[in-house]
Amino acid sequence: MAASPSPTSLRSDVIGLLGAATLGMVFLSPAMTLYGLFGPIFLACGAAAPLSFVLALAATLPTAFSYAVLSRDHPSSGSVADWAARATGRRAGIWAGWIVFLYYFTNFIIQVVAAGYFFNDLLVTLGCVLPPGLGFIVGVTLGSAWPAWMVYRGLSLSTKGALVFLLIEIATVAGLCVTIVWLAPSRGQPITFEGFSPAATLHDRSGMLRALVFAMLGFCGFDVVSTLAEETRAARKLIPRATLLALFLYAVLIVAGMWALTFGSNATHLREMAKADMPITEVARAVWGRGSILITLTALTATLALIIATAVGASRILFAKGRRAAAPAVFARLHPRWQVPWPALHVIFAVGFVGAFVVYRCLGAYNSYVWWATTSTFFAMLTFLFGNLAAILLNRHRLATPSGLLLYGLVPVFGIAVDLYILVQSFFIELWAQDWPMGKSVVVFDLACATLALAFALATSNGNQGRRERDLAMEINRA
Predict the structure, then answer these.
(1) Domain at 17-463: CATH architecture
(2) Are 365 and 136 in contact (CB under 8 A)?
């Protein structure tokens, strides 16, 4: 009789290249990027919005390459946490692990808030107005129940559900963009490729730099693929391929989408819409009429898919930390049938709901979404810093040759420089200059969480790891 799966090992060979790339694409979310980022990017650089994403892709590629190399050489569900531990020591790995967890977990909270926000918006569009707050609460509850049912029952079902949501999202966005471009000449908007001209960067360098901050945020998410290493067939080959495949497919969609949206109206009108709210709704209403309700529905399906992707990523990181004595042992437990880290998922969904509701009560739905999105970006940049640093240290034996110096030295160093720029420019300069609710409070919260994670890492005993590993080995032998 074949041995039963280990209670401390994730179920292997669950997904292939398509499933892994799907979760990466879902986390990147083309629809939500277009809906949320087109406005501020157009305000910053105007018609050069698509060029900002081309430049952001170039800036993201070094970090993506570091992840691909590390996933090939050291596949692990712990991702950056394990790589940092190998490169710099156990305590640094523990700190990095908490940073990665906070990155995925705060991104999960964003999606919980978005579910409530867009569900309430759908009700208003349909003429069903509920008492203040009730529509948000109902949206959060219903919008999380379906993804939770999928996530708790295993990764195979999670990826299938995410793929369905992703295809709906892409079809709607593509339909809107094609319609905009098709109707643009008749609406007085000639089709040009001015938005890709480098002259736009030279004309307004400061505007492009501001746009790049937002565009870089749009590329956060490809890294979730690395957490699937233990549940993927031939992980050393598949995870690097899935990481780069998800990134490039997303880049094609988002650059084309940004280019199409610049023809949604004249530049003056687009700027006016972007100053007031997300311009995507009014642009869709102008070309689709009542069919613009599909944008709200697509936002909901994209949110459901993102809840799946972020819950999977956060739970796998917490599971890996529990397995290595870097978090309470309960998080190393898996459901005996589904081989999924249920205790980690319990905490993620419960604490995530609390975090969403607390900030919602303080700031409202939309500002709560922006607050958590900004917070998640801080931890994303720190995560990428750890990843690039690990790529250098774990490949230092390859730096002796010119090609090795370029690929494993200069490339990740460039990635580190980009990450540091985003951190300094967007957090310690831009956000700190804003008022407390939407600016300084984010910086204080992020630094407090990072400091607590560091303190926990420094206080963790190496002896706990040895005892935990012996306990896990005994548990495996009994299985």
Answers:
(1) Up-down Bundle (1.20)
(2) yes
